[in-house]
Predict the 3D structure of the following.
Amino acid sequence: MVSEKTPQGSSVGVDDPYAFVERCDHLTDDGRCRYAAEHARHDPEFAAERRRDDLRCPAADPHGEWTWADCPHFRARQHDRECVRCGLAEHRRAHSDERPLLEEHHLSYADDDRRELAHEITVYLCRWCHAKVHDSWARVDDDAAPDPEAIAEREGRRSEALSETAFETAAERYDEE
């Protein structure tokens, strides 16, 4: 299988983007297609077909007739806020403009020959793993540990957050020396 590439030709670090999919974002807990129910005006034919089948998602059934790749409206975005490659967890502070530790990484891009949108399959990578994957030498499914610089950055943020929770009286805070 040919490894997926970005439109610029750099590696996305996977052969099969669907291997990283647990479920479609449009799938309800009871196995129905939310896209057909809520966005029928965008694809009336698709919505009508799903309604004839009580909005059942044919890709959600492991014994069904579709795979995720067969659905024209499939979308899967990772919701866990940790790097899928090294496991580094995000640590963000409210009201801070510091660069996030995690970045979205798209595993699927449009085929240049078809000139149409491909399925959106997105995971999170820490910015260190993200750089390694796009430099074409690392793979998303590598067994990797967090980069020491990444751990230091996360722990620095954690320490700053903890120091902000320490109690300081107004007299101490605004003590003019």
